[in-house]
Amino acid sequence: MGQITKPDINPIIPAVLNWFLLGGVGYLMIGQQKKGIISIAATLILSCVGIGFLIPFITAYDAYLLGQKLQSGASIGEMENGLEFLNAIFK
């Protein structure tokens, strides 16, 4: 797995994209394609049973934390998470 480095990123942008665009577009923007696709699919599938609206809130905060890490000059993994409990889903 490769490392993603984007020190010029504003952490608010991927958070807002995840919040308003299916819970995964912000991940696509920061370079976490697989994680973004999984999040979008989960949002669509879980929307069929009425709980898909929860995913954008969780992924927005996670994308914000990852954006902060990138902005500080650190790199992140393709499936790295800012929220520890997401490791059960995205590892």
Describe this structure in words.
- The chain is mainly alpha-helical.
- The chain has one domain (9-81).
- Helices cover 53% and strands 4% of the residues.
- The protein contains four helices and two strands, in the order βααααβ.
- Strands 1-2 form a two-stranded antiparallel ribbon.
- α1 (12-20) runs antiparallel to α4 (54-71).
What labels describe this entry?
91 residues, 4 helices, mainly alpha, two-stranded antiparallel ribbon
Concise overview:
With 91 residues, this protein is mainly alpha-helical.
Topology:
Layout: E1 3-4, H1 12-20, H2 25-30, H3 33-47, H4 54-71, E2 76-77
Antiparallel strand pairs: 1-2
Helix pairs in contact: 1-4
Number of helices: 4
Major β-sheet profile? 2 strands, antiparallel
Helix/sheet category: mainly alpha
- DSSP, total strands: 2
Calculate the mean pLDDT score and round it.
90
What value does the Rg take, in angstroms?
12 Å
The percent of residues in helical segments reads 40-55%
Strand fraction equals under 5%
